[in-house]
Specification:
The chain is built from four helices and 14 strands. The chain is α+β, with helices and mostly antiparallel strands. It has one domain: Deoxyribonuclease I, Chain A, CATH 3.60.10. Helix 2 packs parallel to helix 3. The radius of gyration is 25 Å and the shape is globular.
Length: about 280
């Protein structure tokens, strides 16, 4: 009988480890993709100059202070003049790297068909500021005027969405104040028609809707009758409402003082956006 040499156990273990290492060459480790935080700040600035009960002329400066302090990723703006967007965009660029998108949609003057105007002559309406982290800077703006309007009110209400194409839709609106039934019909058009059309043809993205809806939870009608079943919902205790598709998890909400520069506190919602991209293989 021929005897075979015995390989020491430490050497066997070393050979096994080396074999595993060789097999792993060229295959990177799969790391989990962490959810990304997303902070949405809702502001009604009452800055048209027409609503004298809440107009102070100081709300835009205060809004810039809040943006610098809170560094939101999305700011939804109601009751603003077109020039206010430029001022607040500068505040956003001070606290964010990457792309900051500024979008504005005027309300329509139902008597003339032209954009509705602030007292200072600028266009009046709603806006969205969106920080889009590099390299996902591609975007598109979508907007419209609601088909249902109050014929006695010359201000025809509008909606606005910014599509960060690989990340999310960020939408805002300011609904009719003369009739809660009309406001509910406008809300239903936004979440039941306009946004589903944006999601069509494989263009779905996680979506947030934030704005002064002139509807309340527990009101008549109740704003919850407008919230889709598969959306999450929060509110500021008043008429500022926040909705998000179910793939976004709401972590916290809080009000931020506007120091009496307008008639609404700022409403800040913190949520998490699903991780983007596939892990490396």
């Amino acid at each position: 009988m021929v005897s075979r040499p015995t390989v020491p156990r430490p050497l066997v273990a070393a050979i096994a480890l080396l074999s595993v290492a060789v097999l792993l060459v060229g295959c990177s480790v799969v790391a989990p993709v962490a959810p990304a935080p997303l902070r949405v700040l809702q502001l009604n600035l009452c800055n048209s100059g027409m609503a004298t009960g809440c107009y102070t002329g100081r709300s835009v400066a205060r809004a810039a202070e809040v943006i610098r302090a809170e560094a939101p990723d999305i700011v939804t703006l109601n009751e603003i003049c077109s020039g206010d967007v430029d001022t607040l965009e500068r505040a956003m660029t001070e606290v964010h790297d990457g792309t900051v998108v500024a979008a504005f949609q005027p309300a329509r003057n139902g008597r003339t068909g032209e954009p509705y105007r602030c007292v200072n002559g600028q266009q009046y309406g709603v806006g969205v500021l969106t920080h889009i982290a590099a390299p996902a800077g591609d975007h598109e703006v979508h907007a419209g005027i609601y088909p249902a309007q109050d014929p006695a009110d010359p201000e025809q209400r509008a909606w606005l969405c910014v599509e960060a194409r690989t990340l999310f839709f960020a939408c805002t609106t300011h609904l009719a104040y003369t009739s809660s039934t009309l406001a509910l019909a406008q809300c239903a058009h936004l979440v039941g028609t306009a946004i589903p059309q944006l999601h069509a043809d494989g263009r779905y993205r996680p979506t947030v809707v934030s704005g002064d809806l002139n509807l309340r939870q527990g009101g008549t009608p109740d704003v919850r009758s407008c919230v889709p079943e598969d959306y999450r919902h929060r509110h500021d205790g008043g008429v500022q409402q926040f909705m998000a598709t179910a793939d976004l998890r709401i972590e916290a909400t809080r009000s931020v003082s506007m120091e009496r520069t307008t008639d609404h506190a700022a409403f800040l919602v913190t949520l998490t956006l699903p991780g983007q991209g596939d892990p490396a293989h």
